[in-house]
Amino acid sequence: MITRQGFLKASSVATLDGLTVVSDTEIANVTNKPRTFVLVHGAWHGGWCWRRVADILRARGHRVFSPSLTGLGDRAHLFSKDISLQTHVEDILSIVEMRS
To answer: Are 22 and 11 a contacting pair, CB within 8 Å?
Structure first.
């Protein structure tokens, strides 16, 4: 059985098409080389919850995306029964593609 902590540790750093994806526990270990971060919020939050972290990363020269997922946070008005994990994956990919 995989625990939440084990999953986060195993998936804390991954690279996807040149983007560096890290968990919040790994941000302190980031090198000085400018990178692109995609910060994804949890349930009942929005991209705004990463504001302080995003500000710190940007001040260090990194590029940061912290989108709010469809139906959550400041996009709660878009909630519907048709929203799935695939919707959230598409949200993340869309923002990265549009700003790349």
So the answer is: no
